[in-house]
TrEMBL record:
Compartments, as annotated in UniProt: Cytoplasm
Lineage: Bacteria, Bacillati, Bacillota, Clostridia, Eubacteriales
Gene3D superfamilies: 3.40.1280.10
Keywords: Cytoplasm, Methyltransferase, S-adenosyl-L-methionine, Transferase, tRNA processing
Domain of life: Bacteria
Name the record gives this protein: Putative tRNA (cytidine(34)-2'-O)-methyltransferase
InterPro entries attached to this UniProt entry: Alpha/beta_knot_MTases (IPR029028), SpoU_MeTrfase (IPR001537), TrmL (IPR016914), tRNA_m1G_MTases_N (IPR029026)
Record-listed E.C. numbers: 2.1.1.207
Top-tier EC class: transferase
Domain tRNA/rRNA methyltransferase SpoU type: 3-143
Source organism (scientific name): Clostridium fermenticellae
Family: Belongs to the class IV-like SAM-binding methyltransferase superfamily. RNA methyltransferase TrmH family. TrmL subfamily.
Catalytic activity: cytidine(34) in tRNA + S-adenosyl-L-methionine = 2'-O-methylcytidine(34) in tRNA + S-adenosyl-L-homocysteine + H(+); 5-carboxymethylaminomethyluridine(34) in tRNA(Leu) + S-adenosyl-L-methionine = 5-carboxymethylaminomethyl-2'-O-methyluridine(34) in tRNA(Leu) + S-adenosyl-L-homocysteine + H(+)
Function according to Swiss-Prot or TrEMBL: Could methylate the ribose at the nucleotide 34 wobble position in tRNA.
GO cellular component, one term: cytoplasm
Length: 155
């Protein structure tokens, strides 16, 4: 059993490193969609992921379309501040994909609009600022998905 975490064009190496660490510890696969805002050799990325990098199940794609083509028929959720549904209302299951956008601007319209019913969000009381940190949001949503699957990797 696994969960698929997708980062669409991530920009901040420390966030990606933290997310990689979360993926290793939850048995989730990390998918990165280019262009990346950093080198995978960057010391901040490695530092944030600590010594977890050898254990990370990682795939990198040249485009979002390449990812979707490879996983036709899979269920995709889109984490966005524009989502109408809260993340805990989604019905996560094994092998689902959760797509997270760029730190600076989130997911592009064409991705969000491809399936508005699968757009989910983490509620925030103060909406005058942008949003939660990406790595925090990934952890919140990933653990809810794993909770719904009865924490399959934690047993």
């Amino acid at each position: 059993m696994s969960l698929n975490i997708v980062l669409f064009q991530p920009e901040i190496p420390q966030n990606t490193g933290n997310i990689a660490r979360t993926c290793v510890l939850t048995g989730s696969k990390l998918h990165l969609i280019k262009p990346l805002g950093f080198s995978l050799d960057e010391k901040h990325l490695r530092r944030a992921g600590l010594d977890y990098w050898p254990y990370l199940d990682l795939s990198i794609y040249d485009s979002y379309e390449e990812l979707r083509e490879k996983y036709k028929g899979s269920t995709f959720y889109f984490s966005t501040t524009h989502g109408k549904n809260f993340y805990h209302e989604a019905k996560f299951k094994d092998d689902d994909f959760i797509v997270f956008g760029r730190e600076s601007c989130g997911l592009p319209d064409y991705i969000r609009e491809s399936d508005p019913e699968k757009c989910i969000r983490v509620p925030m009381i103060n909406t005058t600022t942008r949003s939660l940190n990406l790595s925090n949001t990934v952890a919140i949503v990933a653990y809810e998905a794993l909770r719904q699957m009865n924490f399959p990797v934690m047993k």
